[in-house]
C-alpha cells in the first residue's frame, strides 16, 4: 500500500494513458521514496528497467547496462556497446521487440550513469529527441538521488533536452498525517505526541520511519538508529549529501552555517560564515538546497528581495548538528539522559518550530484562512533607544491586511501560559506594531504541541492551534 502520493500517482497514470510519448522526471531528496513510488505504481511491469551504479566508471556502467538489456530480452547476438550511443541504440532494439502496448522505460539513478567524459548526456538526448519522442508509445521515467544533477543537467539544460520533460514530479516529505498513516500501517504503538517527537528528529522521510521497531520507545529507536556508532543510520548525514550533490563539501558548509542561526542568514552572511567565494556558484547551491527541501527562502515585510533570508528547515540536518555530530561512544541510555538537559529543551523548541514551518497549510486551515494568500517568515529586530528588541518565530502576513504573529511552544504535557510569558508576547506585539504599515493589524496566535493548560491566562490569546490540528490531511 502506498501512503499518500495521490497527486504524484495521478500524474504518472496520466502520463501512462497519454496518446503521445512522455518524458517523466521524478526527483526529491534521498530516502524520500522515489523508486518505491514508481515500482508500486507500475507493479514492476517495465519494458526495461535499469539502475545506475554509484561512482562506477563508464566501462563498468556500460557492462552492467548491457547485462540488464540481455536479461530483459535483448538478442544475445547483439554486440556489447562501446559507448552510450551504442547502448541506447541497443535499448531501441529491445523496445522494438516488445509487445507491450505502452513501453515503460524506467531508468533509476540516472545521474550516476554520467561519469566524467562519458558523453552520456548527448547520447541520452539523441535517444529521446532522435527516436523515442517521435513515437507515440514510449513512457520514459527517470529519477535519481543526485537531485542537483537532474535540476542542472535536465531541467536547466540549454541544449537538446531543453524543455523536453513533460511531467515533473517533486516528491516532498511526508506530512504528520502521512507519518501517522505509516505508523498505523506498521502497527507501531505511538500516539501523536510521540509522532511529533519523531518528526522533530526525522522529518517526514519515509525510509527513516520504516526503520522504527515496535518493541522500542521512540527515544530508544532514535538512540539505536542515529546516535550509536554502529547504528544503521549513524552515518546518514554524509551519505545524504554525497549522494545528492556532486560537490557536497560546499553544500555542507552552507547548511552548517545555517544550522547555528535560528531565523536564517542572508546570502552575504552565508558567504562570510561559511567562508565561500562570492560568485554565481553560491546562488546555484542555495537554489539546489531549496529545490531539495533542505532550505527555504523568505523576505521580511520591510525588506527587498536582495535581502532575502535563507533558513534551514530540514529536521534531520538540525538534529545531526545538535546531537549526532557530537555523539561518540554513547550507551543505551544516552538519548533518555539527554532529554533532561537544557540543550535538549532548546533543541525541542527549535525543532518544533521547523515542524510548524513544514505544516503551514495545516495552520492556515486551523485558523480558517485556507483561501487567503499569505507570506510566511520569521522576524527579528535588534534593540534600540525605543525598545528592547524582539524575535518572532513565525509570521503569517495575509492578503486581507491581517498579520498573525505565531508563538510556537513545545510542551508535550501541555503549555502553561504564565503571567511573564503573556507579558513577553504583548511586548513583542507592541514592538512589531512599530514596523508594520498602518493598513495592517497584528493578531497573536499560540501554537502548542499538546494544547494550553487552563489557568487565568489560558484564553488571553483566543486563536490557538494544537499539535492535533497539525495532523490535518
Automatic annotation (TrEMBL):
<keyword id="KW-0614">Plasmid</keyword>
<dbReference type="InterPro" id="IPR027417">
    <property type="entry name" value="P-loop_NTPase"/>
</dbReference>
<dbReference type="GO" id="GO:0005524">
    <property type="term" value="F:ATP binding"/>
</dbReference>
<keyword id="KW-0547">Nucleotide-binding</keyword>
<protein>
    <submittedName>
        <fullName>ATP-binding protein</fullName>
    </submittedName>
</protein>
<feature type="domain" description="ATPase">
    <location>
        <begin position="5"/>
        <end position="208"/>
    </location>
</feature>
<keyword id="KW-0067">ATP-binding</keyword>
<dbReference type="Pfam" id="PF01637">
    <property type="entry name" value="ATPase_2"/>
</dbReference>
<dbReference type="InterPro" id="IPR011579">
    <property type="entry name" value="ATPase_dom"/>
</dbReference>
Amino acid at each position: 500500500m502506498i501512503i499518500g502520493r495521490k497527486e504524484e500517482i495521478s500524474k504518472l497514470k496520466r502520463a501512462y494513458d497519454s496518446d503521445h510519448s512522455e518524458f517523466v522526471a521524478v526527483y526529491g531528496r534521498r530516502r524520500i521514496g522515489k523508486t518505491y513510488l514508481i515500482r508500486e505504481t507500475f507493479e514492476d511491469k517495465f519494458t526495461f528497467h535499469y539502475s545506475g551504479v554509484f561512482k562506477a566508471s563508464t566501462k563498468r556502467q556500460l557492462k552492467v547496462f548491457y547485462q540488464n538489456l540481455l536479461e530483459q530480452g535483448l538478442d544475445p547476438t547483439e554486440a556489447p556497446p562501446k559507448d552510450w550511443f551504442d547502448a541506447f541504440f541497443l535499448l531501441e532494439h529491445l523496445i522494438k521487440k516488445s509487445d507491450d502496448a505502452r513501453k515503460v522505460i524506467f531508468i533509476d539513478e540516472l545521474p550516476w550513469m554520467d561519469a566524467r567524459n562519458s558523453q552520456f548526456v548527448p547520447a541520452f538526448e539523441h535517444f529521446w529527441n532522435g527516436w523515442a519522442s517521435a513515437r507515440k508509445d514510449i513512457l520514459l521515467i527517470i529519477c535519481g538521488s543526485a537531485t542537483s544533477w537532474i535540476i542542472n543537467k535536465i531541467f536547466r539544460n540549454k541544449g537538446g533536452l531543453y524543455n523536453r520533460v513533460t511531467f515533473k514530479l517533486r516528491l516532498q516529505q511526508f506530512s504528520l498525517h502521512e507519518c501517522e498513516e505509516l505508523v498505523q500501517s506498521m502497527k507501531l504503538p505511538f500516539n501523536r505526541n510521540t509522532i511529533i517527537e519523531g518528526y522533530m528528529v526525522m522529518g517526514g522521510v519515509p525510509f527513516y520511519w520504516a526503520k522504527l521497531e515496535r518493541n522500542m520507545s521512540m527515544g530508544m529507536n532514535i538512540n539505536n538508529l542515529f546516535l550509536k556508532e554502529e547504528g544503521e543510520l549513524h552515518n546518514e548525514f554524509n551519505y545524504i549529501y554525497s549522494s545528492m550533490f556532486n560537490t557536497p563539501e560546499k553544500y555542507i558548509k552552507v547548511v552548517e552555517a545555517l544550522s547555528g542561526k535560528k531565523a536564517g542568514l542572508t546570502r552575504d552572511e552565508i558567504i562570510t560564515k561559511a567562508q565561500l567565494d562570492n560568485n554565481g556558484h553560491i546562488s546555484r547551491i542555495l537554489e539546489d538546497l531549496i529545490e531539495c527541501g533542505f532550505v527555504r527562502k523568505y523576505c521580511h515585510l520591510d525588506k527587498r528581495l536582495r535581502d532575502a533570508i535563507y533558513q534551514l528547515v530540514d529536521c534531520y540536518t538540525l538534529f545531526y548538528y545538535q546531537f549526532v555530530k557530537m555523539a561518540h561512544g554513547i550507551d543505551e541510555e544516552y538519548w533518555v539522559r539527554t532529554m533532561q538537559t537544557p540543550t535538549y529543551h532548546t533543541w525541542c523548541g527549535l525543532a518544533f518550530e521547523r515542524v510548524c514551518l513544514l505544516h503551514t497549510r495545516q495552520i492556515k486551515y486551523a485558523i480558517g484562512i485556507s483561501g487567503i494568500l499569505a507570506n510566511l517568515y520569521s522576524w527579528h529586530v535588534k534593540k534600540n533607544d525605543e525598545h528592547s528588541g524582539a524575535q518572532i518565530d513565525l509570521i503569517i502576513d495575509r492578503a486581507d491586511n491581517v498579520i498573525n504573529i505565531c508563538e510556537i511552544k513545545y510542551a508535550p504535557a501541555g503549555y502553561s501560559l504564565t503571567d511573564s510569558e503573556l507579558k513577553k508576547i504583548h511586548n513583542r506585539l507592541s514592538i512589531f506594531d512599530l514596523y508594520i504599515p498602518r493598513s495592517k493589524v497584528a493578531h497573536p496566535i499560540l501554537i502548542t504541541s499538546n494544547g494550553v493548560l487552563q489557568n487565568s491566562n489560558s484564553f488571553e490569546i483566543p486563536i490557538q492551534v494544537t499539535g492535533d490540528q497539525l495532523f490535518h490531511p
